[in-house]
Structure formats: structure tokens, C-alpha cells
Amino acid sequence: MMQITYSELLRQRNRQIRRQSLQIGLVAAIILVCSYYVGLFDGTRLADGVPSMGSLIGEMIPPDFSDARDWVAPLMDTLAMSVAGTALAVLFSIPLALLAARNTTPHPVVYHVARAILNGLRSVPELIMGIIFVAAVGFGALPGVLALGLHSIGMVGKFFAESIEHVDEAPVEATQAAGATRLQVIVHGVLPQVLPQMADVSIYRWEYNFRASTVMGMVGAGGIGFELMGSLRLMQYQEVLAILLVILLMVTAVDGLSSLLRRRFK
Amino acid sequence: MIELKGVNVTYPGGTRALKSTNLRFEGGQFVVLLGASGAGKSTLLRCLNHLTPPTGGSITVDGIGTLQGRNRLLTHRRQTGMIFQQHQLIGRRSVLQNVLTGRLGYHSTLRSFWPLSDQDRSVALACIERVGLLEKSLVRVDSLSGGQQQRVGIARAMAQEPRLLLADEPVASLDPESSHRVLSLIRDVCAEKRIPAIVSLHQVELARTFADRIVGIAGGSVVFDDVAGNLSSRELDRLYRQASAPLPEAETQGHTRPFTPVVPQPLENQI
């Protein structure tokens, strides 16, 4: 073995430092170009916007809660939509994820098809799905649930599949050694291991779906977003602020509940 | 009971892990597969229930025949308990839940979606009691010590009500005292049920203490096969020669290295 000297080690370290600085510089350049491209450096336009922002905010204050009673039902809609949509997504994600995980898929072709379905569902925004489902089944909470559920499968299924792929193979092998069939191995060797991750993803998705379902109302798919759009169209900005505050309160509550649930599922 | 004819294993990379092997295992024996790491003990053991499918040759089991076809293999696996080096339990499940996986082979896929019957649970609990962990039945496995986890592994294998027990280096990650306890337990439960145990080990002393019969393996071939008492030091030498040859060099690393060029600074130990 050749002996390595201090100076050679230091030379190598300096080369590493030079390479790292180059990489940091490159990333910074990309960020600057993108920011310029979208107009973030257009100072006059930004400065002009400040007064109109100010007057808009002025019109919002104080928040007007006089119609608050009418928001209870839409809020319940929103909550129910998020729960039902997430449940729908989880239900369909489990079988899809098993097909889309390299270690549980029955065939490589099935694997690629399942992955393609997940990617497809993920790439159609839920708002677009909402518009489609409103056209299909009419206004209300139902198109909202379908849109949220279908779009969520794309992400939930992908995360499920990834946690299935990272499962510890050792207990799986032990289950095989006991004479279990393929499906028994999956149900008793694989799924118990990924249950905490699945619960984690599902609860996080529920939280996300609650936020997303506030927007679904904008396309007529039910919930508090419908009220928000109404107030915006009538330019009742004090009511808009009131609704936004109520949503903020609900999101905070859902967030707290979800982190509580996730801790329990460790 | 179980017979191997010309069984051999070549791994996808081209490594010949097991050369053509003929062996026969009979009821009631405690057989130790003895050899250095990488000698092919695990490969041979894992062949016996096709966790590593043999590349060639045939394995015949009494009452089943050759292990061809899915159904025969599943039946054979159900009848064959296996104990692993790293326990291979699901850490976040309870002792009982882990042991119950040993009962899966007795039920259809559809039936096993629902909780198993009290009868199956009683079998599992009896096995847990036998390994002395009854009061831990509902405790998560990852809260147990290494020796206790290995006992859960034994209980899971026993819950299959096996006709044959395989154990792949069951004490490799345990301290000497736990090793003795675990091996005694395996020997005793197999004697009670009058089933053969095939256990791979690399510790000569443990093999001498526990084995009725020792099958010595070196370089992928059986080089010794006799009752434990006949294992002479000359046989042992042959068994470990190939493996021990490169050892002295590795062991003396860091003490004296006569072949390193002499360099003024003692840099070597700092890097």
C-alpha cells in the first residue's frame, strides 16, 4: 500500500471545496434567472401594487361574521368531503400500491401499468377533476369527493408503493418459510410492517384534502369554498376575511388532530 | 425423512455455493451443519425448504415426494419450521401475532384475512409458554432482548407443528449464555416432538456439545459426516483450513506489517 501524505490529502480536500462552490454557484444562478424571468425584480410594478394591496386589506377590516350561521353547513360539507375523499383514496390505493411495488407486483407489465395510472391521476389537478365531475354529476359535495378521492389516489398510492418497496425482507421470508401463499405473505408479512407509514400518509393526506376541499367550492363542488367565491364575486371583502379566518381556524384544528393521530400510530 | 440427491446451487453471479450433494436426514436426530462462514451451510439449509431453490438435483420428503409444484412445496414448508439468525420477526407486532404466522399454512388465503380461531391461538400460546414467554404474549417483539426474540422465533417455528426443524445460525448474534439456552431449547423441543433438527453453526464447541451427528462443510462440499464423537482435530483442521488460511494476515493488521514500505511519519493510524 502506498503511503499518502498530508499535502496530497489537503490537495484533494481543496479540490472538493472548489467543486462544491461551483455547484452552489450554479444553483444560485438558476434561481436568479428564474426569478428575473417571472418578474420578481420588476421593482416599479411591485411598488405600484403596494397601495392597492393596502386598500384591499383596508376594505377587509373589520371581518364581518354576521352571516356566520350560514357557513356551518358548508363547513360540515367541507369536513365530510375531506374525510370521505381520503377514505376513497386509501381504499383504492392499497391494491394499486401492491401492484405498483416492485416486490409485490405479479408481473413487470402490471407494475408499469399501475405506475402509469398513479402518475396519470397525480398529473390532473383536482380543480380540473372537480370541473369534470360537476359536469358529470351536478353541483354539490359529491363531485368534490370524487375529485379529491381520485386525485389523492395518485399521491397516496405512490407513497404506499414506496413504503412497500422498503419493507424488511426478513420477516417476509419467514412467512414464506411457514408455507404461506403469496397473498398471505402480503397480508401477514408485508402490510403489518407498512401500517404506520400508511396511517401517516393517509392522515397527512386528509389534512391536505381539507385544505384542498375549501377550493373545490370555487368550481361548484360544494363546501365552504362556494361561500367564499360568492362573497368574492359580490366584493364583500369583510365577509371574505371572516370566511378565511374560519378556514384558518379549522385548518389549525385539523392539523393538531392529525399530528395527534400520527403520534398514536408509531 | 428428507433426502437430497445431487443437489447443487449456483448463484446468478456464477458462484458455485453448493456442489453436488447427497445427504439423508432421519427422524429424532440433532444434526449440526458445521463450517466456516461462506462454506455453504446456509445455502444447503435454505435448499431444504427451497428458500434458495436448488439449481439441480432433487429433494425427496417422506409423505410428499419430490418438491415439485406449488402445492407440494407449500405443504412441505408448513411441515418444516425454520429459525433464522436475525429472528426475522415483525418488531411492531406482539409475540402472539408473530407466533400466529406459523399457523397461516393451515388456512386458506381467504380465511386468514380474519383473526384465527381460539384453537389456533391456543396452539400458539402453548408454544409461547413452552419457550417461557407466556406473560410477554401481548408485548411488542421489539421490546424484548435478543435471546427472548430468538425464543419467539422458536415458538413461531413450533406453532407450525412441524415434522422437521431447520435453524440457520440461530445463535450467531447471541452471547454464550443465551446461545446455550437457545440451543438447549431447540434440542429439547425437538426431542419432545421426536422430530429431526438441522442446525447450522460455526462454533465447534457448541456443535460438539449439542450434536448427535455433524455434517462438516467446506468450499461448498460435505467433507465430514459422522456422529459428533468422531470429529477429530485432524478433521476439524480440514474443515477450517481453507477459511483460516487468510486469517493470520487479517488478524495481525495494525500490529506488525513487515511488507509496508517504511515511511517516516506514522500517518497510517491517523487516516
Automatic annotation (TrEMBL), chain A:
Belongs to the binding-protein-dependent transport system permease family. It is a multi-pass membrane protein. SUPFAM superfamilies: MetI-like (SSF161098). This is Phosphonate transport system permease protein. InterPro entries: MetI-like (IPR000515), MetI-like_sf (IPR035906), PhnE/PtxC (IPR005769). GO terms for cellular component: plasma membrane. Keywords: Cell membrane, Membrane, Transmembrane, Transmembrane helix, Transport. The chain crosses the membrane at residues 21-39, 79-101, 127-150, 240-261. The keyword Transmembrane applies.
TrEMBL record, chain B:
Keywords: ATP-binding, Cell inner membrane, Cell membrane, Membrane, Nucleotide-binding, Translocase, Transport. Residues 246-271 are annotated as: Disordered. SUPFAM superfamilies: P-loop containing nucleoside triphosphate hydrolases. It is a peripheral membrane protein. InterPro entries: AAA+_ATPase, ABC_transporter-like_ATP-bd, ABC_transporter-like_CS, ABC_transpr_PhnC, MetN_ABC_transporter-like, P-loop_NTPase. Residues 2-244 form the ABC transporter domain. CDD domains: ABC_PhnC_transporter (cd03256). It holds the Pfam family ABC_tran. One of its GO terms (cellular component) is plasma membrane. It comes from the Bacteria. It is found in: Cell inner membrane. GO terms for molecular function: ABC-type phosphonate transporter activity; ATP binding; ATP hydrolysis activity. PANTHER family: AMINO ACID IMPORT ATP-BINDING PROTEIN, PHOSPHONATES IMPORT ATP-BINDING PROTEIN PHNC. This is Phosphonate transport system ATP-binding protein. The lineage of its organism: Bacteria, Pseudomonadati, Pseudomonadota, Gammaproteobacteria, Pseudomonadales.
